[in-house]
Amino acid sequence: MSDLLRRLPVALAVLVALGLPVVLDGFWLQTGLFAMAAVVGAIGLTLLVGIAGQLSLGHAFFAALGAYAYAWSVGEVGDRAAGAGLPPILGLVLAGVVAAVAGALFSPISGRLRGIYLGLATIGLVFLARHLMVNLEALTGGFNGRAVEPFSVPGFSFSNDDPDYLAIAGVEFGGLHRLWYLFLVVVLLAAWLGRNVKDSRTGRALANVRDSEAAAAAMGIHVARAKATAFVISSAYAGVAGALMALAYGRIAPDLFGLQLSIDFLVMIVLGGLGSIAGAAAGAAFVVMLPLVLTQYSSELPFLAAPGSGGLDGATLARLLYGAAIIAVLLFLRGGLAGAAGRLRHRRSPPPPDTSGLPPAPPPSAAPASAAVPEPSHPGVPTRSKETTS
Amino acid sequence: MKHRTRTALALAGCVAVLAACSTEDPNASGGGGGGGGEGDVETGNGVTDDTITVGMLTDLSGPFAAGAAIQVTQTQAYYDQVNEDGGICGRDVEVQVQDHGYDPQRAVTLYRSMAPEVVALQQVLGGPTSAAVLPLAEADGLYLGGHGWAGVALQYENAQIPGTTYAIESANAIDYLVDELGLSEGAKVGVVYFVGDYGSDSLAGAQYAAGERGLEVVPQEITPRDTDLSAQASALQQAGVSAVILGAAPGQLASLAGVLAAQGLDVPIIGNTPTFGPSLLETPAGPALEQNFYTVTSIAPYSLDEPGVQAARELYEAAAPDGELGWEVPLATAQAELLSAALEGACEAGDLTPEGVVAAMRETSDLDTEGLYATPLDYTEVTEPPTRTVYVSRASADAEGGLEVLGTFEGPSAQSYTVG
Q1: Cβ–Cβ contact B72 with A under 8 A
Q2: Which domains are present in chain A?
Q3: Most buried pick, A14, A64, A346, B316, via CB within 10 A?
Q4: Which of B3, B5, B53, B109 has the most A C-beta neighbours within 10 Å, making it the best mutation to test the interface with A?
Q5: Would you tell me how many other CB atoms lie within 10 Å of the CB of residue A46?
Q6: Where are stretches of biased composition, namely Gly residues (chain B) (predicted)?
Q7: What does the pLDDT look like over B332-349, one tens digit per residue?
């Protein structure tokens, strides 16, 4: 019974998500697509940073790899930019695989560095990606980018054609509506896999490595392999997220995969609560949707100035809110949105539920932000002060 | 028991969804039979019985905020006047403005919300942003203007390029250097350009023309983040260039002109349209610019004495008495005139739908802008630029908008340059 109750919110959320395309307009569908693509990437990053404690600013690099791998493999042979003409479903898988392989290639470096040094090393990847994207013109289309073929399975295309007209309950289902369901499936799959990884032997081993490499090694965990595993899994997630982004845009260019994207991913998981799958999803939705929604509806908010008139406009307000949200979470919400939700649940039901359920808050040993900079050799040092300075 | 209920529920759900599903388009036979406006004009998105809505996706909080704001003001003023004079097709024109802040993701989402509400996009500002929106607009058959002058836009049927391309500007620049400024064969010309659709297009034109005229190009690639061009200036001096073509932004022009003057390299600098801003003349680089800076633009500079430009000036000065002056003013007027002409054409053809506007724009073969452009414009060929003639001007603190017009120019290599 408690099992059913626990799953009810998720089931309800899925049901609502299934029905949404019938009522949403193009703007909200497009926003939802971008948000869902970001959710996949954020889940991958929270596994890496939150669970395995490896700070990465290179998520944009792997997302770019995935996006271009998809675009290349699905692209038509003999088009302006090279393509392999593979079926799109294979392209989507390939996007994850290519990024995972790149993650594996990078793991000798990521295994030797930790904390801020790993962060800096991964920044290098972002610049490498930009250089490659601009200069490998035959593959990437150079600075102007390349078009992305729409997703399709035999007999059904996730675009406006084939079938040219499709309606459900009297609402015409165009490319955006159809993609919505594809993205929803991928997001659910990503969340389910992420939860399993987190709760499995692998996940516990990763958390152990994060908390103390020496202790993990003493328990028989192969530390280097565990770190490599985390990097590979997270890269594969980023690759798939990149492919979804490519599908949501319909055209990709190097500008989309800059350092800002990496930082956005990091902000998503910090806001959501490091190590929490649901938190990463919520953080991703917040970070992606806030600026889009505020600009779209700025004209309807009475205290906002019209764009360009010099006052506080929607775009500026979005940036201020974004910063304020990060500061507020770091100061007041330990464990991010997920931590807050967990505490709220605790307060409502005084006798703690069975331990097999959701971990109500991140494990006490893992103070969220300090997890990104694991210093296992000082277990006695209060983590609080470190958190506020990092 | 519980399981049976669940299965039944799931089955019922599936059946309901399938029953609601249809692949027959109820509008298919009618050919979009909606609308039914007066005077037998077919209408579609963004057109009602008394208003026509056009959209602007522009950058009011990003790097191009200053120039974009001028264009928004001027476009608004233009349509206010059109509405006072009776509107287009008996309807008032309304401008919907959204700010994408130079962010492609925001541009795409804002496009999605705007597309069903407008009949045409007056402007999508910015290279990466317009590159993201152009294919979507093409798929929707929606007119798109004001996206800059990059040659890549010429592959889109729905895009109306507001003048000639950067490549042809630069080809004209080379021709001008040879024919008017007396560069001799074998001379070297430096090209400092932004990587990307703007700068690379400019370089392509310069290289082609240099090949035709027997000059040698010394390319120097920069990014918009490079604002100190000392290294590039030194390299150009070492290479011994006799002129420089600049495909960049005002910040880069100020640095380049300043450093070249400090090094004692007294050579002409010719810039593409977006290179110049009048406020540059108040910087320390001002004197150097007045001495050496030329610009090739397909849009008329602010100070040109032609009726079209004069009208634009008057309109702008009434709308924004304290506003910045610049080539954005005639440009915004010209873009609004181009779209108005397309709207009028669509109205006359009785098809005031987004597709009708694109079709009418492609019928435009001899559009006279009274001096806003150097020649009449011809949009009938998708892959051909509507004109190949440019205005050549030079920096002058005495002229309004900082540019004094020297005349129009169309060189032989600009004529023979093939786009794409």
Answers
A1: yes
A2: 23-389 (1.10.3470)
A3: A64
A4: B109
A5: 34
A6: 29-38
A7: 999 998 999 999 888 888
